[in-house]
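for the recovery benchmark. tokens below, seq after
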């Protein structure tokens, strides 16, 4: 079997292209795809730091460096809960909101272009297959 005939190759190749495209666009604003994705997942009312990684499909320890970077760049602020100091909520700063809106426009533009080029039934099939694939992996039903 050739690599390009495997399911994981096609998914990895598509994700690489999407990631590269988003990073090139984000670079115009001095950011990255990861920064934009993080900002898009922070609620306006604040997001508990412990909830951000699962919202992004990441491990919590993988997000620690990103949160520190976002804080240093002035894109977020961390606020401890008044009653429980262990709980920390992350809020967007004005600068973070501005970059979030730019990221949102890029994502919407990409999605609109894909929807204009690929039929809705094909996208529904794609989502269905990817959802089933994720369930198989999540339930350890692969190996």
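predicted aa per position
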């Amino acid at each position: 079997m050739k690599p390009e005939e495997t399911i994981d190759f096609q998914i990895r190749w598509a994700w690489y292209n999407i990631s590269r495209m988003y990073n090139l666009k984000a670079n115009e604003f001095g950011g990255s795809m990861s920064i934009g994705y993080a900002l898009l997942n922070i609620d306006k009312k604040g997001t508990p730091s412990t909830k951000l990684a699962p919202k992004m499909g990441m491990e919590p320890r993988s997000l620690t460096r990103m949160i520190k970077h976002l804080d240093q760049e002035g894109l977020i602020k961390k606020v401890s809960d008044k009653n429980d100091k262990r709980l920390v909520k992350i809020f967007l700063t004005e600068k973070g909101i501005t970059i979030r809106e730019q990221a949102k426009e890029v994502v919407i533009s990409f999605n609109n272009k894909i929807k204009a080029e690929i039929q809705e039934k094909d996208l529904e099939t794609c989502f269905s297959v990817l959802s089933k694939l994720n369930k198989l992996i999540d339930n350890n039903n692969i190996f």
